[in-house]
Amino acid sequence: xxxxxxxxxTFQGAFFAPAGEWRGIRIAFSAAAWYNLFMKRVIEVEGxxxxxxxxxxxxxxxxxxxxxxxxxxxxxxxxxxETTLPDEALAACVASAGFTVKEIRARKGIFS
Length: 112
Prior knowledge:
Helix content: 25-40%
Strand content: 35-45%
Strand order of the largest sheet: 5-6-4-7
Number of helices: 3
Shape: globular
Largest sheet: 4 strands, antiparallel
């Protein structure tokens, strides 16, 4: 038996989840597990006053391993992040970009 992992992508519910077999062990993720693996977070910040500030916050977050996407809205003072990192790592990154973190919460829907 080979030592490679064949990774398949299957559709389960509303999420794509990896599934496969490795050394005879079946690997599968439920839609809930896949969603929790890549958490969608909302970071409320102070000090983001223009488009360039928003771009700086996005760039800093996207440089972190574990962040797959970041979109900032300077008018609302929020950053939407898809990540596997804990909130403390996100807060430290945003603070190093020069902003004050007010709150980090889960993003529950498309418009939250």
